[in-house]
Description:
Chain A is mostly helical. Helix content of chain A is 71%, strand content 1%. Chain A has helices spanning 23-59, 65-70, 84-115, 118-133, 136-155, 165-189, 193-201, 206-217, 219-235, 238-243, 261-270, 278-308; strands spanning 74-75, 80-81.
Amino acid sequence: MGIKHGLSGKPEASIDFSKRRRPAEGTIRTLLFISAAISIFTTIGIVVILVEESILFFGSPEVDIIEFLFGTEWKPMIGEFGILPLLNSTLMTSTIAMLVATPLGLFVAIYLSEYASERVRGILKPLLEVLAGIPTVVYGYFALTFMTPLLRSIFGPNIVQIYNTASAGLVMGILILPLVASMTEDALSAVPSSLRQASYGLGATKMETSLQIVVPAAFSGIGAAFIVGLSRAIGETMIVALAAGAGPRLTANPFESAETLTGYIVRISGGDVGYDTVDYNSIFALGLVLFITTLMLNIISRKIVKRFREVYE
Amino acid sequence: MSVVFSSPRDTAQEHLFREHNLPVRRRKGLIWQAVFYAATSIAIITLVTLVLSIVDGAFGYVAVQNQIEVEELVGPGRTLDSASKQELIAMLNEHLSRGLVRRFDFEAPLMERSNQDLIKLVMREVVKPQVLGSWNLVPSLFQKDLILQEAAQRYPGADIVFRSWLTLDFIGASQSSIPELAGIRTAIMGSLLVIMITILVAFPIGVGAAIYLEEFASDSRLNRIIQVNIYNLSGVPSIIYGLLGLAVFVRGLEPLTSGALFGFGAGQTANGRTVLSAGLTLALLVLPIIIINAQEAIRAVPQSLRDSSYGLGATKWQTVWHHVLPASIDRILTGTILSISRALGETAPIVVVGASTFISVDPNSIFSKFTTLPIQVYQWTARPQGAFRNIAAAAILVLLVLLLTLNASAIIMRNRISKKRRQA
């Protein structure tokens, strides 16, 4: 806050104009602080609830933590709780999504930041925002009614099941594309134009300047965009709930159905589950895994931005 | 050209040319440029395909078969609209079991019902139109003959009509297990109620938090933690908020969220799976986004404005209330509208909190069971029958129009602001 440093810029000699207080002022300040602190309570709430229910889950006789981490079957009916099939399909849909979103997002961003005219950018950027604003359940509809039939007509209905991770992953990639593109574009635009001019001055072509100068200079921002996109893909729910199929299955075939972490949580909680059953507790344990994974990714992405950001004057 | 006979100058140039490989580099540049163009085109084509696939589902031919033709009921050349109330009730009595008629009479006396209501009842219970097959828009337009042929073969006796699934009736009707009679009124009401709660809770708290962090907070450890925490919360998957809402609002605070504390709970079976729980859950979900947006808005207010206010002897809060907020409120509102439109489209957390799978009664208070538009889309899409996909598409169109209106108003507002700033 600039005012704290007073006119001379030295804190000791500051004249604090905001000193004059009225009785209500303190109350208002407290209220505002409480508003801000609610976010802390939210986090504490999330952590406490996920951990508490997970402890109940691991405390129940059917479950043991080694089996949970390394078991290859998730069949609550017969007391098998191995997370690998769920993790595997989450990883598969996310990988497919990132394979679509990363190159496309990067190229779209390079085009927008380096090649497009002001007018084209003025049209395309809001268009990307529209794409980003479409609810995920609509993408789910798209996956099921467009992408899956398309895949089935390309590869044959015998190979591609009605519910499959490939369709979910591809559409998820489209969902994440605007996010990756706009974050990358921000990073590219932040590279000062003096760098580009220096590169042109040395005789580089436009493409060499873009790919060898601008992209490396914006690397931290691009990396952050990738990781935020990945974290979004892992937490994405409605597309996989609609298109990837119900029933966890350990498979490496993207054309088979396999339920993901989020898909399982939403299916179980959408049905009638009694409180304090193993099923009920299990979705919180899975939620904890999901929470930790995405939190780590988000923290890493901010660390990358902080540590590797090139600072230009 | 041989090297021996060329002048030194020529060799140098050729050397340069080869060394720098200009044609190859230019070609490479063009190829990459084509790649960039292609990527952008793919993104645009996808957006167009997405919209088209929804429109494709919302219109098209259907094969309908009525259990009893309307003309049989009211005589040739007439429609149900022209039938009198007595005639309509007579139809019900004639074609339905007495027990069923008595049940309808018990729900709401038949004589007191409006004609419109009775016609709907007759349609649903007596005429019972059944969609046997439905086709999407694209085949309906380009393969009409094929469809007519196929329909005649597979559904003899059925009428083939071109149908728009998105109609005023669709928007005004309540949920039904028969796709051609189902509507989204209940879902729209549910969505609006939930969003109302979300705005009422998240807006004041979000803006308050932003004011605190930008204007009041010193650079203390606690405040830094709050700030980092808000950034982290904005990246938490929405389904986790659903789990939080399920455990805290639905289960933990059940007496409050089911309305039992206020004497509302009697006769309700919502068990805390109410509009209030969903609204509060979504409020927590959009809170970080509202805070971050509002912070940016407040940060954009020039420091000189604050300094001059202090210079005139105003207190901190007076400065915030009379100068900082009015100067940033339009940007704050823009950010809020965008986050509200995010909340309107959220599905996963509300499924987890427990929107009802099937209700045909409009939510009448914040303690009612409810369903929302995205949930309705989800449930209809998940069903294998074709006709449900069609009404899912129609519901998506309504949802998208709602969201587009919200977003457009935010974008227009933003453009007006930047114009105003430029003039100032």
